[in-house]
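Changelog note: in this version the structure field was regenerated for every chain. One regenerated record is shown below for reference.
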Amino acid sequence: MKMTLLLVATLAGPVFAQLVQVGPKNPDYCYEVEKIFPNLELRDQAHLVGTIRDQTTAPLTRSRVELRRYISTRRQVRVRVVSTDGDGHFDLGIVKSGKYRLLASPHRGFKQPSELECQNGNTCDLKITLILNPTDMPDAPCPIR
């Protein structure tokens, strides 16, 4: 057994590795380059549904949709996560009044909606069209928020 370990260690020789930093070194970088604000305010409790499409009007199918309660630019609390169906429809159920951040795209390939509006009533039916996001922006290495 000792002979095998010695042979493996001798054959392997020195191992060189390179550490590659992915993303910014400053832990506050993403907060400095991207200010997050609520993009949906519900005055009253409502049933929150909608449809998500891209610029070509193609539906975003089986795509993650996340609703977060907005507390501050640095803090949002996940309320609910659903997926769109084959036609781009989603249903987040009954949502209490308050300020929210709705993430309509699960990645930075699309810009998140900046302002979503509900008509007064028991049902809030959002029609969201996502716009392609440039990939060379300062916030590109940051998580979606």
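Spot check on this record: The mean pLDDT is 87. The beta strands are 40-42, 46-53, 64-70, 76-83, 89-95, 98-103, 123-129.
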